[in-house]
Specification:
Elements lengths: L13 H6 L1 E3 L5 E3 H15 L10 H5 L3 H13 L3 E4 L5 E4 L8 H8 L6 H4 L6 H20 L2 H18 L1
Antiparallel strand pairs: 1-2, 3-4
């Protein structure tokens, strides 16, 4: 997925990766673990309903094994993934890809609520507070409409169109 790949960003943003933050076209900042979680969930959606060994995920996604473990653990606690231990263990989506929205994944790793001062409007900055609250809400609105299944379809469609152009 080119828009989720670490390698697709311009070289000027390389220093951002060291801080764990990444900028995207939408103009908001996402934690690197959030981006990794979306990539892991999208890869698992392509294999739904099969289980996938955690040791195989880094090869497919390019995410380090340590980060995969931490991200999978958090997604398991959020009940978005089912984790199975033992010889035939692995991870799989807890629900069908059509029922998991991208906003559910983002909310696991990003701040849960908008800052308090967005909600406490005073007479001095009421319009600013309202604007910032709407911007925060506007960030999540498109993410609530896209499911993992649709994200995979969009990626496949873009890949097909690139092949046809070449």
């Amino acid at each position: 997925m080119p828009f989720l790949s670490r390698r697709s960003n311009p070289p000027a943003r390389e220093t951002l990766f060291k801080k764990g933050l990444i900028a995207y076209r939408i103009g908001m900042w996402l934690n690197q673990r959030t981006v990794d979680a979306i990539r892991i969930m999208a890869a698992l959606a392509q294999r739904w309903p099969a289980r996938w060994r955690t040791s195989d995920i880094p090869e497919e996604t390019g995410i380090s094994f340590m980060n995969v473990q931490k991200t999978v653990h958090a997604l398991g606690l959020a009940q978005l993934l089912e984790t199975h231990r033992g010889r035939s263990g692995g991870v799989q989506l807890a629900r069908a890809p059509e029922t998991i929205t991208i906003s559910e994944i983002v909310r696991v790793f990003e701040p849960k609520d908008c800052p308090v001062n967005f909600l406490m409007a005073s007479t001095v900055d009421a319009s600013i507070s309202k604007l910032l609250f709407e911007a925060h809400r506007g960030f999540f609105h498109p993410l609530e409409r896209i499911t993992l299944a649709e994200l995979g379809y969009i990626h496949e469609k873009a890949a097909r169109s690139r092949l046809l152009r070449n």
